[in-house]
Amino acid sequence: LGDFSSTGNFDFNATIQGEYNPGLSPEIRAQLGLNDGRIKSPRLANDLKQVSFVASYSNGKYRNRSSSSIDISNLQGYFNRELTELKLRVDNFEEPVIDFHFDGIVPLNAVYGLFNSPSITGGSGEIEVQNLRLKGKYEDMIRVSRADRIESSGVLEFDDAALSINGEKLILDRGTLT
Questions:
Q1: Separate counts of helices (H) and strands (E) for the chain
Q2: Which of 68, 99, 154, 175 is the most buried (most CB within 10 A)?
Q3: Which of 120, 115, 89, 116 is nearest to 102 (CA)?
């Protein structure tokens, strides 16, 4: 995410309470909000506009990585005047557990760069994502052999969705994946 930038009305609030020494860390709580924002990246053909969200961080009960969490609630923004909504919670930074929700229309011409592959050079059409949810350990999400451990649900509806891969067009004209 290092190449993403944002503008808008930010508010930030943080509390750090307690002492720090080799056996003890202070309690840390922080909250970041964005209203009427814009998110840009060289990998996005169009900016995500009118973005708003609230994100909170806590190092948790034990004040360490394993009890830490981050929660991004109600991220909303518009790609090509189409509403996109996202929620993300990550618990236990030692062995992350992810709870991800996504709803919205994804225009492939705007986001194909997120695939981060030089062989993908374009996109068109859109995918309507309805109530997509992924929940489980990050370690299970990155290994195909452990995908059965991930809770998932939702609907993907393809509308003339296409990607240009190695000069060839892969087209999913119409269809639904549940």
A1: 2, 9
A2: 68
A3: 89
